[in-house]
Specification:
The chain folds into 2 domains: 46 residues; 144 residues, Tetrahydropterin Synthase, Chain A, CATH 3.30.479.20. Strand 1 and strand 2 form a beta hairpin. With 214 residues, the protein is an alpha+beta fold. The N and C termini lie far apart (76 Å). A 3-stranded antiparallel beta sheet has the order 1-2-3. Strands 4-5 form a two-stranded antiparallel ribbon. The chain is elongated, with a radius of gyration of 20 Å. It is built from 9 helices and 5 strands; from the N terminus they run αααββαααααβββα. It is 45% helix and 17% strand. Helix 1 crosses helix 2, helix 3 packs across helix 8 and helix 5 packs antiparallel against helix 8. Belongs to the EF-Ts family. InterPro entries: EF-Ts_dimer_sf, Transl_elong_EFTs/EF1B, Transl_elong_EFTs/EF1B_dimer. It holds the Pfam family EF_TS.
Length: 214
């Protein structure tokens, strides 16, 4: 007998069909976490066995920027989807948070900027890779979802990175500053004001290489 409360919860959190949720709960003997894992694994198999949409338009999505706890590395990525219904969903936003956790837990690998290895980084919670997690949600929503851009700041001992994500998740910014001493909380507060200024302005130069000698 399937627990109806768990059935509704599983349906709401995974967006899987009721029949799939019922089957997962039966196979897991009403163990919610196990049922959720079964649905994710099934979704991954489905998306891997089907043809992916080639060159599909992905006009919607969210930008997310963050730094390591010591502010030595800044990371910004863009997760895109086909509709704003998906990009604004709790599951999509949860996937962004999940990707951030995985990247922060593997920051040394992230710094190598090897895109294939980044996609294959695994969660410590359920051992799913970033790509498998994206594929699972893509299968459930029936939409193409892609991690389209990843930006990583260089790590140097005399540099500090800050990150900013606008509240609508359409704009993000990374700012890396060279320092000649340990920064105080007041310094970091000023730097955060600086990144807000840069993200809201039409900058003439984005990189040092863009600047002329004059």
């Amino acid at each position: 007998m399937v627990d109806k409360v768990l059935l509704v919860k599983l349906r709401r959190e995974t967006l899987a069909s009721f029949s799939a949720c019922i089957e997962a709960l039966k196979n897991s003997e009403n163990n919610y976490e196990e049922a959720k894992k079964l649905l994710i694994k099934k979704s991954i198999r489905t998306i891997e066995s089907s043809e992916k949409v080639e060159n599909s338009a992905l006009p919607e999505g969210r930008v997310h920027a963050f730094t390591s706890s010591d502010n030595k590395v800044g990371v910004m990525f863009e997760l895109r989807s086909q509709t704003d219904f998906t990009s604004n969903s709790r599951e999509f936003i949860g996937l962004i948070g999940r990707i951030e956790k995985i990247l922060l837990a593997n920051i040394e690998e992230v710094q190598k900027k090897d895109r294939k290895k980044i996609y294959s980084l695994r969660s410590s919670e359920d051992n799913l890779t970033i790509q498998e997690s994206i594929s699972a949600l893509s299968s459930i929503t029936r939409e193409e979802i892609q991690l389209s851009e990843i930006y990583i700041t260089p790590q140097e001992n005399n540099f500090v990175s800050l990150a900013y994500t606008h509240h609508n998740a359409k704009l993000g910014a990374l700012l890396t500053l060279q320092k000649n001493r340990e920064l105080t909380q007041e310094d970091l507060l000023y730097a955060r004001k600086l990144i807000l200024h840069f993200s809201g302005s039409d900058s003439t130069f984005l990189r040092l290489s863009d600047c002329s000698q004059s």
